[in-house]
Specification:
The protein is α/β, with parallel strands linked by helices and 376 residues long. The chain has 2 domains: 196 residues, Glycogen Phosphorylase B (Rossmann fold, 3-Layer(aba) Sandwich), CATH 3.40.50.2000; 172 residues, Rossmann fold (3-Layer(aba) Sandwich), CATH 3.40.50.2000. The protein is built from 14 helices and 13 strands. A 7-stranded parallel beta sheet has the order 3-2-1-4-5-6-7, with helices on both faces. A 6-stranded parallel beta sheet has the order 10-9-8-11-12-13, sandwiched between helices. The chain is globular and about 65 Å long.
């Protein structure tokens, strides 16, 4: 089957998209990844590569010719991407189109009248995505609704999200397919017998959703009892004022030698292997691959009971803990730090739980969906 996978930009930075496309290619599907961006496509994470059979198309790619670049940059500002996608769809003739974000849906539907089935992915809690587009002025809402009505199937990541799309549209086909999680061989998993005395949080350094400051606040309550333990917060930093706020919080609590804001890395897996605990104070996720990969490698995880998706992936008292508030987060973090055997028990359970999201199972579900929408 020929699958057109559309992602507006940062294609190669989206590790899950590369993993997903490779899995489809391995099952002998013809995969075309298309974007329309004058900026860079991003870079692959350490140890990853795009299958050679996959066709990567940038419809507005920057070249070495300054005249062509001037034209393409100007064209990108004046003419909507949908015109270029219309031409691409006509050339490629895919059996199905998979859109990563709603903006990708707009690119393959506006000013177009093809009848190729479209699957719209929902990579977060659906209302967080849909409200952004449907709470605008009347004309804009009409344009967005036109595109959404072209969707054959909405794919959501969690069972609890199944009824969160219907309120926005006429009844649609909605399916739950979680992200595929890489299954680490035993010799690639974290060794919790060897105590590193390190807590890790891999995230985007952002205040409203990811909330790494709550980890600092929680650790500050117990740090004096664990002077040889450290906390590392890793992730893309885009908000200097918030970075400064975290650093000040570290300083105010005298944690400069224990808590570190480390920045971005491509080799996340190496970080997991050097940690004992994955602390994850996010308020909401779609289906967090940061949590899932950490669990698949054998790390116990700590999150909040109120956190969407997090509270479904973490099973309290089984593969990690779910906390009521920051004080409870601190106490449950303390329990994990004190008890290596508990960490090992939770880590082993986490590995077993992540087998439900093995690539074979998840891609099998995608293939059933492709057959359904194409009537193949």
């Amino acid at each position: 089957m020929k699958i057109l996978l559309v992602r507006d930009r940062n294609v190669l930075n989206t590790n899950w998209l590369v993993f997903y496309a490779n899995l489809l290619a391995e099952r002998n599907h013809e995969v075309v990844i298309a974007c329309d961006t004058y900026s860079k496509l991003g870079t692959l994470a350490t140890g990853t590569s795009l299958d050679k059979s996959i066709k990567l198309v940038n419809l507005n790619e920057k070249t070495k010719n300054p005249l062509i670049n001037f034209y393409r940059k100007l064209r990108g500002k004046i003419f909507p991407s949908s015109f270029r996608f219309k031409k691409l769809i006509k050339q490629e003739k895919p059996d199905v189109i998979v859109c990563y974000f709603p903006v990708d849906l707009f690119n393959v539907t506006r000013f177009q009248n093809h009848n190729i089935p479209i699957i719209q992915m929902m990579h977060c809690f659906p209302p967080l995505i849909l409200d952004k587009y449907l709470k605008k002025n009347k004309l804009t809402r009409w344009a967005y609704n036109y595109s959404f009505k072209k969707v054959n199937t909405f794919q959501v990541l969690m069972d609890s999200y199944m009824d969160k799309v219907d309120p926005y549209f006429e009844p649609k086909n909605i399916v739950r397919i979680a992200n595929a999680v890489y299954q680490f061989p035993e010799d690639e998993r974290v060794d919790l017998d060897v105590e590193k005395k390190k807590i890790i949080y891999v995230t985007r350094i952002e205040k409203k959703i990811k909330r790494p400051h709550l980890l600092v606040e929680a650790f500050a309550q117990i740090a004096k009892d664990f002077p040889d333990w450290t906390v590392e917060i890793w992730g893309l930093q885009k908000y200097p004022a918030y970075d400064a706020e975290i650093l000040q919080l570290i300083k105010d609590n005298g944690l400069e030698k224990q808590v570190f804001l480390k920045g971005y890395t491509k080799d996340v897996i190496a970080l997991y292997r050097e940690a004992d605990i994955h602390a994850f104070p996010s308020i909401a996720e779609g289906f967090s691959l940061a949590i899932a990969d950490g669990m698949a490698i054998g790390l116990p995880t700590l999150g909040f009971k109120e956190a969407l998706s997090v509270n479904e992936v973490i099973v309290d008292g089984h593969n990690g803990f779910l906390a009521d508030d920051v004080d409870d987060f601190a106490q449950k973090l303390k329990r994990l730090m004190q008890d290596k055997n508990l960490r090992k028990e939770f880590g082993a359970n986490a590995i077993a739980d992540m087998k439900n999201y093995s690539p074979e199972i998840i891609i099998g579900k995608w293939e059933e969906l492709f057959k359904q929408v194409t009537k193949a």
